């Protein structure tokens, strides 16, 4: 007897197809730092946090290599929460993008939205972190750190010298973590 094709099997196959057919939707592409210098440039500082002219958080690396607090904190938070999938230092893996490049190429608000809400493309799944304070309270830190990595402004590994954490950053952290 010929077994009729189970409609569930068909549904499962159809659901899988987009993941198999569609190319990866990753924003990650090679970055030429010289093309993005203006976009990431510091316009102003607010008690230890640095921003571009568009009010987007950015990194600040002193001439002697001292990194701003967010870049240092982002290094630690990234390696606690993201590196299992995205690889050490934002370098990517076979199944998750090189998000050091994404942080330069993606719009800040799209980057934020992807982490808060997650994203799925077939079997390629980015979890959502919107309810995880260990990510949400440090998302600017992670973003700024990855942007510095994508721009080659900081080397791989733990930054050796860091600026002190400002009182405002500490207060914001306390308020966020509750
Ligand atoms: C369980 C594995 C996993 C973890 C943990 C994870 N991600 Fe992802 N992430 C992925 C995958 C897989 C994708 C690609 C999704 C797709 O194909 O659309 C992705 C995509 C992204 C993107 C979009 C990148 C692009 O180029 O389009 C961003 C931004 C991102 N992740 C940030 C983060 C951050 C920040 C963290 C840590 C807080 C994190 N991810 C933790 C698996 C993960």
TrEMBL record:
One of its GO terms (molecular function) is electron transfer activity. InterPro entries: C-typ_cyt_methanol_metab-rel, Cyt_c-like_dom_sf. Residues 1-23 form the signal peptide. It comes from the Bacteria. Keywords: Signal. This is C-type cytochrome, methanol metabolism-related.
């Amino acid at each position: 007897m010929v077994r009729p094709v189970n409609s569930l099997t068909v549904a499962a196959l159809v659901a899988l197809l987009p993941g198999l057919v569609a190319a990866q939707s990753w924003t990650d592409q090679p970055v030429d730092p010289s093309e993005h210098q203006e976009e990431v440039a510091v316009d102003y500082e607010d008690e230890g946090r640095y921003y571009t002219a568009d009010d987007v958080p950015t990194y600040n690396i002193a001439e002697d290599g001292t990194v701003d607090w967010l870049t240092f904190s982002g290094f630690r938070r990234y390696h606690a929460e993201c590196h299992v999938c995205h690889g050490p230092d934002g370098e990517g893996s076979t199944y998750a993008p090189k998000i050091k490049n994404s942080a330069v190429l993606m719009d800040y608000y799209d980057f934020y939205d992807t982490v808060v809400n997650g994203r799925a493309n077939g079997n390629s799944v980015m979890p959502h972190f919107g309810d995880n304070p260990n990510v949400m309270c440090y998302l600017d830190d992670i973003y700024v750190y990855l942007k510095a990595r994508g721009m080659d402004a900081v080397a791989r590994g733990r930054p050796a010298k860091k600026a002190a954490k400002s009182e405002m950053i500490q207060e914001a952290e306390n308020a966020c973590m509750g």
